[in-house]
Amino acid sequence: MNLGAFLIYFAILLILPLWAQSRVKNTYKKYMKVPNSAGMSGAEVARRILKENGIFNVKVVETKGFLSDHYDPRKKIVRLSSHNYHHSSKAAAAIAAHEVGHAIQDAEAYAFLRFRHALVPVANIGSNMSFFLIIAGFLLGATGLIGIGLVLMSFAVLFQLVTLPVEFNASNRAMDQLVSMGVITSSEHPQTKKVLNAAALTYVAAAVVALMELIRFALMFFAMDD
């Protein structure tokens, strides 16, 4: 890889995630100031969707942090950041519904979600160790180490790729629930979709970066082997 291509490659690695994060923050800050037509807080939206879907073993609680919202499948808890928990903005409704979308996936044993959970242990090992094994392998000329590192990195990349259908499916479920419950009107649909799409960009960016790194190291490995 020549210097120009090398610089372009690393510019993409740096800029893509930063752009995605900026898009999420800007979209969220815009729609956190716009109330949803139902006047429901994120917590109320989450609890109503759970009730409408017959899910009574999942709690909805407030958590600290900015955009720290997530669903914990082990403890069966939907955690919403303070604004989304208390306020009735379009952003709060969208994100609360999205996280409950994961709870619905869990209740229905959604295949991609189950597969992602199964990948967690080996993906964590891959994320933590693969880079060091690959670099050590190149420095020592140990192809075996590089091969192990690439395998472990492949599991981490697979986790990122499997995350995409999980997140997009949760967003689709969120939109369906918000519309069917009357939390948003047809005119609010595009605005709510913008919030969910912006959030999805972070997962797309992470998957692209991870895949690019795997391909780069794999090409270097095969070039070394030749």
UniProtKB/TrEMBL annotation:
Organism superkingdom: Bacteria
UniProt GO molecular function: peptidase activity
Ranges in coiled-coil conformation: none
GO biological process, one term: proteolysis
InterPro entries: Zn_peptidase_2
Transmembrane segments: 6-24, 131-159, 200-223
Protein name: Zn-dependent protease
Species, as recorded: Filobacillus milosensis
